[in-house]
Amino acid sequence: MALIVQKYGGTSVKDVDRIQNVARRIKGFVDQGHQVVVVVSARGGVTNELVDRAKTINPQPAEREMDMLLACGEQETIALTAMALHSLGQPAVSRLGHQAGFVTDGEHTRARIIDITGGDIKDRLAMGEVVIVAGFQGQNSHGEITTLGRGGSDLSAVALAAGLKADLCQIFTDVDGVYTADPRVVPNARKINEISYEEMLELASMGSKVMQARSVEFAQKHGVIFEVRSSFNDQPGTIVKAEVPSMEDVVVSGVALDKNQAKITVSDLPDKPGTAALVFKALGEANVIVDMIVQNVSRGGQANLTFTVPKDDVHRATGAVEKVLQQAGGGTVNYTGDIAKLSVVGVGMRSHAGVAATLFDILAANSVNIQMISTSEIRISVAIDLEDAPKATQAVHDGFGLSA
Predict the structure, then answer these.
(1) What is the pLDDT of residues 88-142, one digit of tens each?
(2) What distance in Å separates the CA atoms of residue 330 and residue 134, rounded to the nearest whole number?
(3) Coil, strand or helix: which one is 201?
(4) Which residues pair with 139 in a beta bridge?
(5) Apex CA 36: angle with CA 25 and CA 203, to 5°?
């Protein structure tokens, strides 16, 4: 008998038929003798609908109230999933995030997990019940509902697996595993059987929609091996685990495309020590994640600072920067959302030269202009025009020999 934590995403529980399908799948694992804890997301489309309603009422709604609103999506799903299991004769109980012991900091809409006690989950499992936990949510020290950011149900599942010392963690989604690129953009992308935490983290951070980046980071920190697989078939998925030597044989493992990027340019900044520090300190205090950064020194002792942020954070970022411009000695802020971030990822890049040159050659051959570049030990990212994104992704994927 194994203790298994399973997570089902929004597409897997999109409607009643799919919820019933998930219930049958869960019962199948119980019938094999396993104890099962299930983490579910809101039904597909529900979170976006709630966000749209909120912004119709107030374009910049209070983050505390957004947490109260968005937590409703998962609450609906856990109850419906429990009901579906009951109809199959399987005892089950639903639990909200705080009932499952998720304790977070006080940062609304993007809270971080401080502790996870598990609540009464183990007692319920011992009674033969399936425990269904609302993903994406927790509670701060003041007893207020908090949410973990978009895709936070992945983090809930991995954290539960770590806290309960589960034997297996499975992330069920609408694809068969992790692919060399998004199959919707690159039709000939192929599934990866095994991938390292580092590669998965880079892919997730760079726009791959399979897993939330923070969940992969948590899994790596706590040594949680997990499998990404489809909820619509019984095919094996992709195992995400610590790096093994054989992984270095593959130079590039995957290509990620992130269309949810904006480029912010701060022009006419005084070119003196401490100016950039002021800008990025303000962004940090506003909890804005900055990726690519380029600073150009212009004539007259003034500099232009350009960086990328998620589109959802544009107004927070520009507002934070505008507040410190007077302290910095001047400058203006502009932004554009017509860019995409294209990344190639692979642990094999550490020991293989020429990856950047190959990437740039491929893009040049396809008339794709590079606006910005950033790198890590196992990743190279470029900012390109949004309209060039699909053809660039396909060309880079084929150019590195990743096609099925």
Answers:
(1) 999 999 999 999 999 999 999 999 999 999 999 999 999 999 999 999 999 999 9
(2) 47
(3) helix
(4) 103, 145
(5) 80
